[in-house]
Design goal:
By secondary structure, this protein is mainly alpha-helical. The protein is built from 29 helices and 2 strands. It has a two-stranded antiparallel sheet with strand order 1-2.
C-alpha cells in the first residue's frame, strides 16, 4: 500500500506547505520551493536551499540535517545535505565525495531505494541529478552529466526557479573560468537573469548572475543583480562579498569597500556565534579585498588599518600558511600601490629559493620579490633590484625543474623585475623590451577576477601594461605609454595609477580631450580618498581647461 506521502498529488502538497514556504527568513532572500516534506521540516529545508545558493556550505548542511531530524523520510533533505559537499562556481569544483555519499546513504542504501523514497517526478529529478553528481566517472564527466540532468529537470518544470538556477550553476561548473567558460557563462547568465526578472530577491539568481558576468567586458550586465545581492542576504558573509566581483571589474571602489566591510563584519559575528578561536576564512578573504579597495580609493590610512588587522588575524594559531601568505601579498601590494618605496631584506627568501623552493608558494614569494625589485629600482639601487630580479628568475627555473605547473603570473613578475633592474642600471632599451615581453604574456591571460595576484591564474599585483606605460612615460615616449595605459584600463578599469598615467601621457602628446577625461575620472573616483596620486595636478588641469586656458 503506498504511503500517505506518496499518494498526495503535488498541487495538494503545495497547498499544505504554502504557509511555511512563504514564511521565510528575509535575511537570506526569498525562494518558493514546493516539496513533500513535513511542515516541521520546511523552515530548515528552505533555509538550507538558500544557504546553498549563497555558498554557505556548513550552514546549509546543518539546516538540512535539522530537516532530516524533523522528517526522517524527507528525501530532498538528504539531497540538500549531499549537494552541500560540492562548492565553487567553475570547474573543478571543491568536492567531498565521501561526505556526500555518506549523506545519501542515510536515506537508503542503494540508489534505487533512495529514488523510490522521492514521492514526485520532480523530486526524483532532483535526487537523480545528485546521484549522477556523486556517481561513476571522473570529475569532469560527472559535472557534465549533472548539468545535463539539471537541464532536463528545468525543461520539464519550467516554472521551477530553483531547478533553473541550480542548472545555471551546474553549467558554469563544467568549464574552467576564463575564455574556456565564456559560452556556458553567458548561457548560465541568461537563465539566471530570467529568474531574477521573475523574483528579484532570489539568492541563486542574483549570485549566479554575478559569477556569469565576472569579466570587465560584460560586468555591466550583472550590476543590477550585484546591487541587489549586496543587501539581500545579510546573514551570509559570502553573499555580502560576492557583488565585489562585479564592482572590481567596473572599478566601483566605493561599492567594493562597502561590500567587504559588511562581509567582514558578518563573518566576524558568525565566528563569534560559533565560538571559533580565530576568524573564519571568509572574513580574511573580505579583508584581503577590502585592503585593495582602500588602496584603489586612495585611502591609505584605512588600507594600513586593514593590513594591520590581517596581520593580527594571521598570527592566530589556527590561521594556517594560506592566510599568512595572503598577508605577505598584501604587504607587497601596499608598497607598490602607495609607492612608498623601501629596500626590503630579501636575503632569507633568496636562501630558501636555493635550499627548499618546494616549500614556497611561488606567487606569494614572487610578489614580495617584485615589490623589492620595483622599489629598489625607483630608489636608484640597481644592485638590490637585480638581486630581487635574480631571485625571481631562480624561482621560475626551480618551478620548471621540479615539474610544477606553468605559472604565468610568476613568469611575468620575473620579467617585470628584470625590466626594472635593467632600467636602474641605465639600459633603457633592454628594460623596455623586457617589460613589453611581460605585457604580451599578461595579455594572453584573462583579466583578474579580483585584486590582481590573488590567485595563481591572475596577472601579478603590478599590472604589466601599467608598469610598462609608466616606464615609457618616464623615458620620454608618451605616445607609446598612452597605448599601454589604454590597454590596462580596458583590463582593469579605474585603477588610479592607470588614470594618472593616461592623463599625463595625453598631456605630453597634446591630447587635451583625453587628458581632461582621465583627470576627471581620477577626481571623481568612486569613494576617492585623499591619497590619490596626482589629485591636485588633476584639479588644476581641469580648472584651467574650464577657464579656457
Amino acid at each position: 500500500m503506498p504511503s500517505v506521502r506518496s499518494s498526495l498529488p503535488l498541487f495538494l502538497v503545495c497547498g499544505l506547505i504554502a504557509g511555511s514556504a512563504s514564511a521565510q527568513n528575509a535575511a537570506l532572500g526569498t525562494i518558493s520551493f514546493a516539496n513533500s516534506g513535513g511542515a516541521a521540516a520546511q523552515p530548515y529545508f528552505l533555509e538550507g536551499v538558500k544557504f546553498l545558493h549563497s555558498f554557505e556550505w556548513e550552514d546549509a548542511a546543518e539546516a538540512f540535517r535539522k530537516a532530516e531530524q524533523a522528517d526522517p523520510g524527507f528525501a530532498l533533505a538528504y539531497w540538500g545535505e549531499a549537494l552541500s559537499h560540492t562548492g565553487g562556481h567553475h570547474y573543478p569544483p571543491e568536492q567531498d565525495m565521501a561526505g556526500a555519499r555518506k549523506a545519501l546513504v542515510k536515506l537508503a542504501a542503494s540508489r534505487a531505494e533512495r529514488l523510490a523514497k522521492a514521492p514526485t517526478e520532480r523530486e526524483r529529478g532532483y535526487l537523480n541529478a545528485v546521484e549522477v553528481l556523486y556517481g561513476e566517472g571522473d570529475g569532469h564527466e560527472r559535472a557534465v552529466k549533472y548539468a545535463e540532468a539539471m537541464g532536463q529537470l528545468s525543461e520539464r518544470f519550467p516554472d521551477d526557479d530553483d531547478a533553473a538556477t541550480f542548472y545555471a550553476l551546474a553549467l558554469m561548473r563544467t568549464a574552467q573560468r576564463g575564455r574556456e567558460s565564456t559560452r556556458v557563462d553567458l548561457q548560465a547568465g541568461a537563465i539566471a537573469l530570467r529568474v531574477f526578472r521573475r523574483n528579484g530577491s532570489h539568492p541563486g539568481a542574483a549570485h549566479y548572475i554575478v559569477h556569469a558576468f565576472d569579466d570587465p567586458s560584460r560586468a555591466i550586465v550583472g550590476l543590477d543583480a550585484a546591487d541587489v545581492y549586496a543587501y539581500l542576504a545579510p546573514d551570509a558573509p559570502h553573499a555580502l562579498h560576492m557583488p565585489s566581483h562585479i564592482y572590481v571589474q567596473l572599478g566601483l571602489w566605493d561599492k567594493l569597500s562597502a561590500a567587504n566591510e559588511r562581509s567582514y563584519a558578518a563573518s566576524a559575528r558568525r565566528s563569534e556565534r560559533k565560538q571559533l578561536r580565530g576568524i573564519e576564512g571568509q572574513a580574511f578573504h573580505a579583508m584581503f579585498w577590502l585592503h585593495y579597495a582602500y588602496l584603489m580609493q586612495g585611502n591609505f590610512a584605512k588600507a594600513e588599518d586593514a593590513l594591520a588587522r590581517a596581520e593580527r588575524h594571521a598570527q592566530n594559531s589556527d590561521a594556517g600558511p594560506n592566510r599568512t601568505g595572503q598577508v605577505e601579498t598584501m604587504r607587497a601590494r601596499h608598497i607598490i600601490e602607495t609607492e612608498r618605496w623601501q629596500l626590503i631584506d630579501i636575503a632569507p627568501i633568496i636562501a630558501q629559493i636555493k635550499a627548499a623552493p618546494d616549500r614556497l608558494t611561488a606567487r606569494i614569494t614572487g610578489s614580495t620579490l617584485l615589490a623589492a625589485a620595483v622599489g629598489a629600482s625607483r630608489l636608484g639601487n640597481a644592485a638590490a633590484s637585480e638581486l630581487a630580479a635574480g631571485g625571481l628568475r631562480d624561482l621560475v627555473a626551480s618551478m620548471k625543474a621540479h615539474g610544477f605547473s606553468q605559472n604565468k603570473q610568476v613568469e611575468i613578475m620575473a620579467l617585470e623585475a628584470g625590466g626594472m633592474a635593467l632600467l636602474a642600471s641605465g639600459d633603457r632599451e633592454a628594460a623596455v623590451k623586457t617589460l613589453e615581453h611581460a605585457a604580451a604574456l599578461e595579455e594572453s591571460m584573462d583579466p583578474p577576477s579580483g585584486p590582481p595576484g590573488e590567485q595563481d591564474d591572475d596577472p601579478p599585483i603590478k599590472p604589466a601594461h601599467e608598469l610598462l606605460g609608466e616606464v615609457l612615460l618616464d623615458i620620454g615616449r608618451p605616445a607609446d605609454a598612452a597605448k599601454q595605459f589604454a590597454i590596462g584600463l580596458d583590463r582593469t578599469p579605474n585603477r588610479p595609477h592607470l588614470l594618472i598615467g593616461a592623463a599625463r601621457a595625453a598631456v605630453k602628446v597634446n591630447d587635451r580631450t583625453t587628458a581632461r577625461l582621465r583627470y576627471e575620472q581620477l577626481i571623481n573616483l568612486p569613494g576617492g580618498g585623499p591619497d590619490r596620486s596626482g589629485l591636485e595636478e588633476a584639479k588644476a588641469f581641469v580648472s584651467a581647461s574650464s577657464d579656457g586656458k
